[in-house]
């Protein structure tokens, strides 16, 4: 590998329009409509119909999933992006799983079992979903499921991951980027820094972490 000299990049000028586009992409991806509108107005950028279309509906879907109201999230998704969940059975299963988990959390074990039999078992053709279903059902074996080995299914991080996947799927269904420009830049930076760290060892930059970058 040729010697790496970071000084060759010091003279690169960052285009302000690129920065604005990155920020706007992040705001649109995460449904910050008011802030996106303010940014567009403040810098005089022309509003794109594709950019802001259905953002309120997508935001509602995201928050319903995030709060565990999976049935409402499914209903709104079917209205906004017809056939999306039919074409993505794994995502559909994950959303229905949130409903099961919510019933378990509310100590409605009988209702949870009936829901699993009616709504989750039809997805049993997939080995991956069978494994997930077994994890869900394991929660019923504990009086305090939050202390079970499957406790992570009850946590906000699990709901966040499902909500993020749903948001990306809805964006992709509308032919919009499933990942924001900022996410793609961080992914690229992470890969590059890891590669340089492996190639150059102690003389190279440390692996990229967002926490360290924000402190720099």
Molecular structure report:
The protein is mainly alpha-helical and 216 residues long. Helix content is 65%, strand content 0%. The protein is built from 12 helices and no strands. The longest helix has 20 residues. The radius of gyration is 22 Å and the shape is globular. The chain starts with 15 loop residues before the first helix and ends with a helix. The model has no long low-confidence stretch (mean pLDDT 82). This is CTLH domain-containing protein. InterPro entries: CRA_dom (IPR013144), CTLH/CRA (IPR024964), CTLH_C (IPR006595), LisH (IPR006594), Ubq-SigPath_Reg (IPR050618). Pfam families: CTLH. It comes from Platanthera guangdongensis.
Indicate the topology:
Layout (H helix, E strand, L loop, with lengths): L15 H14 L3 H11 L5 H4 L2 H12 L3 H11 L3 H4 L1 H17 L3 H12 L6 H12 L17 H18 L7 H20 L9 H6 L1
Helix pairs in contact: 1-2, 4-5, 4-10, 5-7, 7-8, 7-10
Runs with pLDDT <50, length 5+? Answer: none
Beta-strand share of residues: under 5%
SS elements, strand count: 0
Global shape: globular
Radius of gyration: 22 Å
Instruction: Give the class from helix and strand content and strand pairing.
Output: mainly alpha
How helix-rich are the residues, as a percent range?
55-70%
Please tally the helical runs, counting DSSP H or I stretches of 4 or more residues. 12
Helix-strand string: HHHHHHHHHHHH
